[in-house]
């Protein structure tokens, strides 16, 4: 039997696939499909559309804490990120290491400018980093890969670790 892993967005798929590859796993060869849904509220509609192609396949999901109810109403094996995947990765790496990754991409100056904005000044550094990841189109996808690549494999966030152990 093979597995379908439903995730909220493309950045989540990138993180799962990148981590699996770093752990020496070939999800395609293992017949594990990671499918971004374009948001958690799409899960029921997507499952209905996919019904013929997922018959007999094991289902699992990775989602943000605030979206967990949508997943749990539709599938049994759900792995939940506290806040969201970016939060999990930032905590696992530490803010200094995340800033180093941002700096290596030449974007630390942009991050510092964002930090000076009035609505950011009261936020904790980890919250600012999460916000930065979502401020430009494609940035969440880019940093999903980069943060997972920078991650010490002994410090994999629990939801990602459990998901990959499950599939």
What key attributes describe this structure?
single chain, 2 domains, 167 residues, alpha/beta, 10 helices, Rossmann fold
Short description:
This protein has 167 residues and is α/β, with parallel strands linked by helices.
The description of the largest β-sheet is: 4 strands, parallel
Assigned CATH class of the largest domain: Alpha Beta
Poorly predicted runs of 5 or more residues: none
Strand content: 5-15%
Class by helix and strand content? alpha/beta
> What is the name of the CATH architecture of the largest domain?
3-Layer(aba) Sandwich
Apparent shape: globular
- The percent range for helix content is 55-70%
Tally of separate domains:
2
Order of adjacent strands in the largest pleated sheet? 2-1-3-4
For the termini, the CA-CA separation is: 11 Å
Please tally the helical runs, counting DSSP H or I stretches of 4 or more residues.
10
SS elements, strand count? 4
Order of helices and strands: EHEHEHEHHHHHHH
What does this structure look like?
Helix 4 (85-93) runs parallel beside helix 9 and helix 5 crosses helix 9 (139-150). By secondary structure, the chain is α/β, with parallel strands linked by helices. Strands 2-1-3-4 form a four-stranded parallel β-sheet, with helices on both faces. The longest helix has 13 residues, at 10-22. It folds into two domains: 3-82 and 152-166, Rossmann fold (3-Layer(aba) Sandwich); 86-139, no CATH class. The N and C termini lie close together (11 Å). 56% of the residues lie in helices and 13% in strands. Strand 3 (58-64), helix 3 and strand 4 (77-81) form a beta-alpha-beta unit.
